[in-house]
Amino acid sequence: MSTTISTSAMVVYALAQRLPDSPLLADAVRYLMAHRQADGIWGSTYSTAWTILALGEVIKGTGELGGDFGFSANVNGVPLLSREGGDGYTPVTAEISISSLFPTEPNALRISRQSGPGSLYYRAALKVNRPVEDVAPLQRGISLSRQFYRWDESCARGRCVPLESIEVGEKIRVRLNITLENDAYYLMIEDYLPAGSEVLDTSLKTSQQGEDFIPEESTGEPEQEQLFDPRDPFKDGWGWWFFSTPRIYDDHIAWSADYLPSGSYVLEFILVPLQAGEYRVLPARAWQFYFPEVQGNSAGSVFTINP
User: Fold this and answer.
1) Geometric angle at alpha carbon 109, from 39 and 121, rounded to 5°
2) Angle at CA of residue 294, ends 291 and 300, nearest 5°
3) Assigned domain for 16 exists
4) Is residue 289 part of a domain?
5) DSSP conformational letter for 182
6) Are 257 and 156 in contact (CB under 8 A)?
7) Within a domain: 36
8) Is the pTM above the cut of 0.85?
9) In this predicted model, what pLDDT tens digit does every residue of 136-165 receive, in sequence order?
10) Domain count, the chain
């Protein structure tokens, strides 16, 4: 729970209350704002909360709520936005297409501020999308891979063949293989779905239900589902009890684990193909929520659903 961001924010929070005119505050605030991510947060809810508290104290101590000044900005000489005056705490946003930037030459963002009380804070972010099939696996303390299999009797018996396409109406078994080099705390795992499919959520009575396939050596009726069967602790895969119940969204599925020992784990879920087409599938991703630099993702892929 201690990072350079959260620790700096705690110091700024205290200093802004006791010595609001301290010459250290300007650089400290600049440091915090420089580490704000493109989505507006500071890496975790913990760091974000402390940073917002700290910046609130700075604004109160310096009197910036009464700011009144004009400013303008341009990119490569082309006007981007401007304001002639007014309060200093109402944000102004603008965006341009990446096609407006020079692909091989340096680009210049120029910001001009007029005279007046208050401070001008600004943030610029560049977002570039790439073809998902070109995304390679990333391993920074976590190794993650994803395979698609046909949900049938042969796969239930351990003879699974990876798929790149399937027909509408068949079910897909998605398997995530996760390997941790070290113990992990507050681990998050997300896997994005091929458009044209949805997760089979067996907790809903409106979902199509069915019995799991029973290996040949099994006899009798399937046992009633239990959270944990001490007679067969590996039934649902080693370590399944470390993970939360998966949260199902329209476009992805997510798990979390407060603590996960180092080792290898397997997570599985069932997809139902609904709409034929060729779909780009975003990589699956795993990361430590409070230390996101410890992360890993699978390769991107293309998956085809045939009519």
Assistant:
1) 55
2) 125
3) yes
4) yes
5) S
6) no
7) yes
8) no
9) 999 999 999 999 998 876 665 667 788 899
10) 3
